[in-house]
Amino acid sequence: QALTSSPDSTSSETSTECLMHLLQQCDPKTATSIKDTVERHKKELVEIEDELQSRVASVATHRAKIERLQSELALLGAQDLGLRHALASDLSPTSKGENGTVEGVKRSKSELVLRRTPREEVLEPLSADEREEFRNKRMSLSLSM
User: Fold this and answer.
1) Which residue, among 44, 47, 16, 45, has the nearest Cα to 31 in the 3D structure?
2) pTM of the model
3) Helix 28-91 with 11-26: angle, nearest 10 deg
4) Higher-confidence position of 76 and 121
5) 10 Å Cβ neighbour count for 100?
6) Are residues 17 and 9 in contact, defined by beta-carbon separation less than 8 angstroms?
7) Region (Disordered) spans which residues (predicted)?
């Protein structure tokens, strides 16, 4: 092996290469064992980095999901509050409770029943002769069928 370092290597890599070269000359078995250990650790480091990247991506996905759920929850809370205010304002003009609402409906219904339509006010009741004539016409129509 040559002792020349590559242009990309740092000074610590160069000194490590020199030490490994010397160790290779003195004790080749130990040098090979150290190289194998370093290579194994490099592979483990790559695996750990990949797992870390995967976990970071998973956390980012979960964070986005949580933020979306929080915004949906805030929207639902606002809608709920709006509905509560709307219900409260609908119930407040009447008396308290359901009895007040029922009484209001009954009162409105009775007012509708008691009112006369303008057509009924314009029509005058039939005289006795007009009623008799109406009955006769109705009778003749029913006999002709």
Assistant:
1) 16
2) 0.42
3) 140
4) 76
5) 13
6) yes
7) 90-111
Mean pLDDT of the residues in the chain: 78
- DSSP assignment, residue 10? -
Q: Stretch 102-109: mean pLDDT, rounded?
A: 65
Under 8 Å between Cβ of 64 and 53: no
Q: What is the mean pLDDT of residues 85-100?
A: 66
Contacting residues for 30 by C-beta, under 8 A, at least 6 apart = 23
CA atoms of 124 and 47, how far apart (whole Å): 101
CA dihedral 19, 23, 24, 26 (to 10 degrees): 140
9, 11, 18, 46, 65 from 53: Cα distances, Å: 27, 30, 34, 11, 18
The residues, ordered by sequence, that sit 6+ positions from 20 with a Cβ below 8 Å of its Cβ are 31, 34, 35
- The tokens describing 103, both together, are 């009484």
